[in-house]
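Q: Structure for this?
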Amino acid sequence: MNVPIDDNLITYLEDLSYLTFSDDEKNRLKAELKDILGCMARLGELNVENVPERSHPFDNVNAFREDDALPSFDRGLILQNAPECDGEAFIAPSAVAG
Amino acid sequence: MKWEIVMGLEVHAELSTKSKIFCGCKAAFGGEPNTYVCPVCCGMPGTLPMLNRAVIEYAIRTGLMLNCEIARTCKFDRKNYFYPDLPKAYQVSQLYAPICSGGFVEIEVNGQKKRIRIREIHMEEDAGKLIHDSPGGKTRIDFNRAGVGLLEIVSEPDFRSKDEVLAYLARLSETLLYLGVSDCKMQEGSLRADVNISVRPFGEALGVRTEMKNINSLKAIGRAIEYESARQIEILENGGQITQETRRWDDEEGKSCGMRKKENAWDYRYFPEPDLLPIFIDDKWLERARLTLPEPAHRKRERYICEYGLSEHEAFVLTGHKNISDLFENVLEHGGEPLESAHLIMGEIMRLMNDSGTLPEDLSVDGRKLAILVDLVLRSKISRGAYKEAVLAVYANDAEPETYVAQQGLLMMSDGHIISEAVDMVLADYSDAVMDYRAGKIKVFGFLMGQVMKKLGRAGNPDLAQSALKKALDAEVGEG
């Protein structure tokens, strides 16, 4: 893995995720990212030359359900999980793209 | 310098399945906000998706109609991005192995035929709807639409004019409607087009493109293309450079504005969706799908012309929307005479639709009932005026035609005895006019005829009344 884990990368990720980190958080994230990517990089050491590529650990295919509409959840119950709501809709900070 | 506009289209068609792609919530349009939602489509932790078989069927059938190759094995991938309309913070889509690839749509512009190549069709889930009118500048989110199955139909950059784009969209929505896979209502967002557009001096390499989103009518697409191509040409002619970005089309303002710098594919960190098993499509499944394909509209047109003797214009109007051609064929199935039935739909039915602001997709008239009326008018059982009235009753109130014409006294009076009685009475009442007629003032015939019809009422058979009156006048002349 050749991506340099530096402030530029963190700024880039902040941009993509619409998040802002403090300097302390940035330093912590840099260390954690190094560990995570280092761990994933170990997979690259495996010899996979004769291993066919696959997208799923199981051999099963075609797990479907039929196209039947079922009753939905109670709106009040679903909205309990909203950080903010007005009884009808979830409410989020302004998302008008600038 | 002469500029060439180069465009490619990404069309999102919302599928008209009963339920969403990964859960059993209704996939219907409208509904009170957040009433067609459950933990799966709201992205609650610990939930798992379960794929709707109908979405695969719809994709296969669409691919076959658009001349695509259908992948035998395909799978879903996760497209990760952060936006409040996406509750899981990823969209389940297809990148590495889409279900259909390499098709084409044939269009015709100004008599010139052209093939627009389709790069691929993939399946994905729709996002929720953001409403930006909340007080305090906050955004309200309705997840009713989140998780509704979509087909994204991606063309190659084969368009060179606005008219080609519009012809393609017309042909595409015609096909989807005939298949019944989408209702293609642009105003409700079930058909949405993103236009990738760039300009270049003729013969040179492709320019930098922008992507125009948020265009929700054919008219707006035309305007957006004109605006954006002119904007790019102006920048380039002034020595500037085009920024690769996504732009939002504001139809009210009649201009586009930059939304965000275009994210690169790697920014989406696509990876195979681990919660869904791969899909394997065997020969049998493909064959079954092939058997359910409808007759394409252009073949219908040819058939209407050859089999029913319709003109090219008539065939074109009747196949303009699936519901219209379905109604026409339904009338014929119930014995309606083809030419009269065609004229009924193109004339009275379309006029009524127009008057009531009914769109073809909302048309609901019983073809059997229209067939009965066509038969009644052709056998002279009802007059043209009564026919019109009865068609309105069937159209607006789903009236039973035979009962309606009987109750309203519209069945034409064809009883010879009653007609000759009426004629005799008129001859007696208007002896002066009769004498005038005999003296050669043929004009008074119209007056006498009017009096006979008055006596018979609106159900009187004018053809029979006319010949009875003529016969009586001539007979009296002969006798006298």
